[in-house]
TrEMBL record:
One of its GO terms (cellular component) is nuclear pore. Residues 3-72 form the Nuclear pore complex NUP2/50/61 domain. This is Nuclear pore complex NUP2/50/61 domain-containing protein. Residues 38-48 have a biased composition (Basic residues). Residues 1-57 are annotated as: Disordered. InterPro entries: NUP2/50/61.
């Protein structure tokens, strides 16, 4: 280890307020061309290059170019993140653990009032089917979006996720049009009409 630099002059009570002579700092001299050519100049590297972020943005945009779950396209649609929506339309009719479908179970609990062959209140069956279809689509939408985000964030933590959230909001609004609120309003309207029909069939 090199020794510390010693003082060039002694400071005491006799000379503490005297001005010291300025040292000559010298002049800058540029190295010769031959010396510069022999030197090795290293450049710093980024751990996450900017190109990976740009490529990640492009990947996000291209992942949503083929969404055709709610619209009809003239050209055959390409595979997309939300292509599952076309396959879960009839998921409410899949067999349960007891081996019977939801529709069959609803038929068994269906009660026919009076001697009529038609039910006066068929709304429970229709609303249940619509509700099951809505929740099946919502479940599939959330699971696929969560899986897509996890896969792409693991591949590139700097990816831009704004496009997928915009598309998710669009598809969620489409599902809300078929959601419980729309089903409830439709059922209430039908019940009012059927109540009027029921009163006409009652005889005192």
């Amino acid at each position: 280890m090199a020794a510390k630099r010693s003082a060039t002059s002694e400071l005491n009570h006799d000379n503490w307020n005297e001005e010291e002579e300025r040292e000559d700092s010298g002049t800058f001299q540029r190295a010769s061309e031959d010396s510069l050519k022999r030197r090795i100049i290293k450049t710093a590297r980024r751990r996450n290059p900017i190109s990976s972020v740009r490529s990640g943005d492009t990947d996000v945009k291209s992942a949503f170019t083929g969404f055709t779950a709610f619209t009809k396209a003239a050209v055959p649609p390409t595979a997309s993140t939300f292509s599952f929506l076309s396959n879960i339309t009839n998921e409410a009719e899949k067999p349960e653990t007891n081996g019977k479908s939801v529709k069959e179970a609803e038929k068994k609990i269906h009660v026919v009032p009076s001697s009529s062959n038609k039910s006066i209140f068929p709304d429970a069956k229709e609303s249940t089917t619509k509700s099951n279809d809505y929740f099946s689509k919502l479940k599939g939408l959330n699971e696929n979006v969560a899986s897509w985000i996890k896969r792409h964030v693991d591949a590139n933590p700097l990816i831009n996720l704004q496009p997928i959230f915009r598309d998710y909001e669009q598809y969620f609004k489409e599902l809300e049009k078929e959601g419980p609120k729309a089903i409830t309003n439709d059922v209430d309207k039908k019940k009012k009409d059927e109540k009027h029909v029921l009163v006409q069939h009652v005889h005192f």
